[in-house]
Amino acid sequence: MEYIIAIILVLSFVACIIYILKGSNLMITMLIMATLWTALAIIGKYACGTNFAEANATVLGMSVNEILTNVYTDGPVGWGVVLVNVMFGAFFGRVLLDTGIVSTLIRKTVELGGDKPVVTNILLCVVSAACFTTMTGPGAVISIGVIVLPILLTLGIKKNVAVWSYVASVAAGFLLNPVIFAQYVAYFANAEGGTEYTYQDNLPWAAVTCGIMMVVILVYSSILTIRSGKKVSAWAAPREAAENNHVPGIALICPIIPILLVIIFQVNVILAMILTSVLALLLCGKGRSFGELSRSISKAFADGVVDSAAIMGFFLTVPMFCNAAALCAPYFKVLLAPIVPDNTLIIAIALAILAPLGMNRGPLTLMGAGVVTVGILNTIGMPTTLMFPFLTGTTIIMNCATDLTQSWNSWAVGYTKCETKDFLRLSIPVGWVMTAIVMIVSWVMRG
Fold first, then answer.
1. Residue 235: what are its φ and ψ, rounded to 5°?
2. Which end of the chain is more exposed for a tag (fewer CB within 10 A), N or C?
């Protein structure tokens, strides 16, 4: 019976991937899968023989009501910290946008680069990555993109190069983003060492990987910009970049203050964002009185929650699925453990070769069917110290920087009127190479 259940689980997993690739609603898909796998766990509790009892001890020790509570209540409640981090991250991003800090920072960067396309592109990529070491959400990516992308286009940079260099830089910044880390590490709560894996534990790998991405982005986009050979006689920053509130120079360091507080002083990331937000509002004249400061904070928080609303439902159903997958892990182990290699180098090479499966919400992205892949790798005992770099690397590079099912990538392509095929012809090969490098580096550092 355990083999029958295992086969049904695998077939449902394949069906889930196909359904996601067709553009299904991720929230509803995760809810359906959680329900199906919970039902199979309950059936297995009563249908499997005593020979399977030891492997299935967790489910056998729970009543049906406890199983349902574990999936539908404990799962979402356990992810409360993820939702809180997302909301405060979106709030902080809104503060940086509303105060004009980001637009001023970009304008000064452009002034520094002058009319030299290569230099300006490099500087804007670096600034964009730095901003998104703390900022999150489609709203923030789009709000900065409407400033950065027109500047790159007016410099004569090709549309696909401008779009890719911007979104890839955003993704590179995500690697060091403590809010993104909190979102992704929650997927590994049931894996070996998952609950003890901290931002500081992940920082060395994240720093190296971010460096690799930025080197590839800057070198390749510079080569493509030079090869285009377009001359620029005159240009001006768009109005969005020119019109902003007065921002003192000292306020321009606010985007990186939270990350410094977390890394150097071990300050809680939410407290770091709150303190920096208040500082930014005060420096930019948004808190001349307590009432004005209160209104500014309330507005930024409300706008930030709206920016992140779309992902909230997904983050409420994913933990249901993760807990259901944990209950079904013994069945996966029975069927797949003899097949899935336990040699981490072989897995690293396989992930490098299969990197495009991180696109289109496939099995190598945590923002899609990758939540199931976590459960499968967990059955062979792969620790979070290696599993997190593997799957976060494929997610950040192939989904956040390459995939058109990612909202801000599709927005950027549409906003610049870039041909989809031109963007993908550039982003997929480079993303594939970057992912392959990151997989091997991850294995060297952690394998």
1. -160, 165
2. N
Q: Residue 230: which pLDDT band, with cuts at 50, 70 and 90?
A: low
Average pLDDT of the residues in 218-224: 94
Helix (H) or strand (E) holding 271: helix 269-283
For residues 144 and 228, what is the distance between their CA atoms, to the nearest angstrom? 25
Q: Which residue, chain included where needed, has tokens 């910290």? A: 81
Tell me how far apart the alpha carbons of residues 113 and 126 are, in angstroms, rounded to a whole number.
12
The answer to whether the beta carbons of residues 377 and 387 sit under 8 Å apart is: yes
Cβ partners under 8 Å of residue 115, min gap 6: 155, 232, 234, 235
Q: Let me know how long the chain is.
A: 447
Here the tokens at position 302 are 């409300």
Contacts of the segment 12-21: beta carbons below 8 A, 24+ positions apart: 12/36, 12/37, 13/369, 13/372, 16/369, 16/372, 17/362, 17/363, 17/369, 17/372, 20/360, 20/361, 20/362, 20/368, 20/369, 21/360, 21/361, 21/362
Structure token digits, residue 10: 């695998």
Please name which of 150, 146, 125 lies closest in space to residue 401, comparing C-alpha atoms: 125
Assign 3-state DSSP to the chain and report helix, strand, coil percentages, each to 5: 80, 0, 20
pLDDT value at residue 242: 41
Burial class (CB in 10 A: 0-12, 13-18, 19+), 139: buried
Tell me how far apart the alpha carbons of residues 150 and 247 are, in angstroms, rounded to a whole number: 22
- Report the SS3 class of residue 199: helix
- Encoding tokens for residue 333? 């182990």
- Are 393 and 439 a contacting pair, CB within 8 Å? yes
